[in-house]
């Protein structure tokens, strides 16, 4: 690591690992009603988007009746 010029006593290094501050952090501010409503709205929007994509995408994943019959264009019928 870094080369130190002055020696550091081992007791100081060991004590630094378990040092705890006696200063408590300030209490968290409570969220306002608007912030809470915004979080709920964002969550509901994400869930609704996932559900909507599942509902729209599910029919595309199921095999349909038209997959069994070969498709012919109208141009190939008018010879």
TrEMBL record:
Under which name does UniProt file this protein?
Uncharacterized protein
Stretches with biased composition (Polar residues)? 68-79
Keyword list, A-Z: Membrane, Transmembrane, Transmembrane helix
Residues spanning the membrane: 40-61
Give the organism, scientific name.
Streptomyces hawaiiensis
Q: Which domain of life is it from?
A: Bacteria
Q: Where is this region: Disordered?
A: 59-79
